[in-house]
Amino acid sequence: MSSTPNPVDAAISTRRSVRAFLPTPVPRATVEEILAVASRAPSGTNIQPWKVHVLAGEAKVELSRRVMAAFDEPDQAEKYTEPFPYYPAQWVSPYVDRRRKIGWDMYGLVGIAKGDTAAMRAQSARNYVFFDAPVGLIFTMDRMMRVGGYIDCAMFMENIMIAARGRGLDTCPQQAFSRFHTVIADALALPDNEGVICGMALGHADPDAPINRLVTEREPVSGFATFRGF
Questions:
Q1: Over 80: is that where the pLDDT of 155 sits?
Q2: Radius of gyration over alpha carbons of the chain, in Å?
Q3: Nearest CA among 42, 49, 46 for reference residue 193
Q4: 20 to 30 A Cα–Cα from 193, which one of 37, 93, 115, 222?
Q5: Which CATH number fits domain 16-87+130-209: 3.40.50.720, 2.30.30.40, 3.40.109.10, 3.40.980.10?
């Protein structure tokens, strides 16, 4: 067996959700290369249901401005809904435990104490400026699609994150954008049949940002896999 590290394994294992980026630009040509590679993702009978809206410069700033304005509205939780619900309606263990742990680990790195709801809200708002990444992506899909289409889009997005790592870039997938679908649809002039799945920040990680020291835990293979016939 070769001792040379597998570059695909390295790209996968070093992928992480980065929440602070440098302002270093990412050329459009690089983004197009990443998307072209990612488009080789599998999809049911090759339907390729994904669409991606790539934003930089003033276009990204304007979208962030609109979404931030909606985020600051009172009662926005009732006003805005997701076209494709992501999280369960009721949380149970072990999922809620993992969710809480990453939250408190992240807040600890940036000095947010338990009960400091204002600071938590401010940190949440960082999603809507793509954590200052130079490139923001908004993923959409035709509303007629069902679970299979969502899975196809997820594989496409994973390919983007891995292809980005292969080029020394980092990402953060951001489901937080989904609930502001109507705001985003207006800003990007989306057709009525197109629903927002999520956003994604893309760029160079800020190596000095404390929040980027967050390392999430993973279950061992024995915790999620069952082998038969070996």
A1: yes
A2: 18
A3: 49
A4: 37
A5: 3.40.109.10
Tokens of 46: 């090759």
- At residue 183, the pLDDT reads 97
Q: State the DSSP string of 168-211.
A: T-EEEEEGGGGGGHHHHHHHHT--TTEEEEEEEEEE-B-TT-GG
Residue 128's nearest CA partner among 206, 73, 165 is: 73
State residue 174 phi and psi, 5-degree precision.
-135, 95
- DSSP element (H, E) containing 221: helix 221-224
- What CA–CA distance (Å, rounded) separates 132 from 202? 9
- Could you tell me the residue ranges of all domains in the chain? 16-87+130-209
Helices 95-109 and 117-125 cross at an angle (nearest 10°) of: 90
Average pLDDT score over the chain: 96
